[in-house]
Design a protein that fits this description.
Elements lengths: L33 H5 L4 E4 L7 H13 L3 E4 L2 H26 L10 H35 L5 E5 L15 H10 L3 H6 L3 E7 L7 E7 L5 H50 L1
Helix pairs in contact: 3-4
Length: 270
């Protein structure tokens, strides 16, 4: 594990920003590749969750491999704690919205979707909220134990590719569906910093998905450093995936136009 706290930040041009430099590094010509300097020594705890699209898991694993990180699979016991924290964090967020915004329930101009979200918080308050808060300290402790053997934790930001927005726009059911796909409530519940990075995914409709990195308390600099390494390793692939999707869309639009013109010409001939 990198002793980041022992790597001094310096104002020298070769060590500016979020780069953490080894003692004695003085000149640009002496600066090793940041990829070799950091990623091979960063230990990533990889969390696998039930219900995740296999394409997304493969995309996350490939991004970590491309970044040359040390990957440590996290065990089933920690996964169970994560899943409980995810439920607790979702309940706490819903109740928080109800406590803050219940005064707007039934007011003119408040949509039915907003009122449904506020009502959900009231529903969660009695059976789940207090027990969730009682488990919060144990969940924070579980994370601290993981960070004794890993520098960061990695998992998908969403368990599945995002659903299509209905023609009539977002609904409360769509909001609930997307909320259930997010892997963010557990880390929010703990209060730890996290970072989401776009990575390429092998899908014809959606060219990118999200890799979420989670760090210990006050590890924002380390997260940004690791996120930049991942971004650098996949940037060209993300750009090509987006361009390929755009090209497929344009080809489809041209094909549709050709078919429409052909049909119109056929009708005129008749």
């Amino acid at each position: 594990m990198i002793p980041w706290a022992q790597w001094p930040k310096t104002s020298h041009t070769s060590c500016r920003g979020w780069i953490f430099c080894r003692p004695g590094l003085q000149h640009d010509t002496e600066k090793p590749s940041l990829q070799n300097l950091a990623s091979k020594n960063i230990k990533i705890g990889r969390l696998y969750l039930n219900g995740t699209d296999s394409k997304i898991d493969k995309a996350v694993d490939q991004a970590l491999a491309d970044g040359q990180f040390q990957v440590i699979p996290l065990d089933v016991a920690f996964k169970a704690k994560w899943e409980q924290a995810q439920r607790d964090g979702t309940a706490a967020a819903a109740v928080g919205a109800w406590i803050s915004d219940r005064k707007y329930f039934g007011k003119p101009g408040v949509s039915a979707k907003t009122e449904a979200i506020i009502a959900l918080g009231e529903f969660e308050y009695t059976p789940n909220y207090r027990n969730a808060l009682k488990r919060q300290a144990n969940w924070q402790y579980a994370l601290r134990q993981v960070f004794k053997k890993a520098d960061l934790i990695a998992l998908p930001t969403l368990q599945k590719l995002p659903p299509t927005i209905p023609p009539l726009g977002s609904t409360v059911f769509l909001e609930a569906q997307v909320l259930s796909l997010q892997n963010t409530a557990a880390v929010n519940f703990a209060g730890n910093p996290a970072l989401a990075i776009p990575i390429p995914v092998n899908d014809k409709t959606i060219p990118v998905t999200g890799l979420q990195l989670i760090g210990p308390r006050l590890s924002e600099a380390e997260l940004l450093n690791a996120g930049r390494l991942i971004e650098a390793s996949v940037k060209g692939l993300v750009d090509r995936s987006v361009l390929a999707k755009s090209a497929r869309k344009q080809i489809g639009e041209v094909s549709d136009s050709v078919r429409e013109l052909s049909a119109a010409a056929a009708m005129e001939d008749q």
